[in-house]
Every structure is written in C-alpha cells, then in structure tokens.
Amino acid sequence: MELKQQDDSVFDNFELRLNENSKNFLRETAKWAFILSIVGFIMIGIFVFVAVLFIVMSSALSSNVSPFAQSGLGTEYISIVYLVMALLYFFPVFYLYKFSRKMKSALIEKNTEDLTAAFSNLKSHYKFIGITMLIVIGIYVLIFAFALIGILI
C-alpha cells in the first residue's frame, strides 16, 4: 500500500509574513553572525600566518635544532596541518558572512530573494558544520576501536 503525499499543504495556501519581533531577532542574529564571521576570518589569517611562520622556521633552522625534530614531525607537516585547518575553517565562516550580509540586505530592502539567499547560506553553514562533525565523530570511533583492539591483542 503506497501512501500518497498531498500536493496542497496548509503552507502552500498562504504567504508567511514576519512580524516585527521576528525581524528584530533576525536583525540581531545577522549582526552576531557578522561579528563571528569577522573573528573567523581573523582566525583563518592567524592559521595562515602560523603556517607561513613554520615554513620560514623550517628553512631557517636545521633539522637538528627544530623543536619538532624529537617528535618526528617536521615543521613542514605542522604548516600543512595549519593550512588545511585554515581551508576547512574558511567555508563555514564564509557561509556565515554571506548569511549576515544577505539577511541585513533582505531586512533593509524587504527583498524576498535576499532572504532566501540568506537562509540558503545559513543552511550551507550548518550543513558543512554537521558533515564535519560527523566525520570527526567517525574518526574518534575508529581511533577508539583501534585502541581497544590494540589493548586486547
């Protein structure tokens, strides 16, 4: 037995309107999103700066003097890690920035297309964060499983 989905839902029959409280909440959310995105861009800049610093350190210091030589990690690897972190951090920050700008524009100009674009960017922000979180949790589960197998063997 197949369930049929209704073509007309209750939401298709009316236009959603934002009251003044909702607009104020969205306006404040856009301001905070902008602040967080600027801080995020600054953090990305710091990651890139540290990566470049490690690259310069690796060329200036011999491998015997490197503070990471004892751990077996070269400064090149540390710089690559920082660059990858900066790259991964860029996308959610950029989506958050675009959300804040589009939401501000939508509320000022009462533009439905900007409002839709703002929510699309917010969705992309959370989707990226969610997928990243699932990947990290998966890596933690694998590490735990291998550690447990290592202990038992």
UniProtKB/TrEMBL annotation:
The chain crosses the membrane at residues 32-57, 77-97, 128-152. Keywords: Membrane, Transmembrane, Transmembrane helix. This is DUF5362 domain-containing protein.
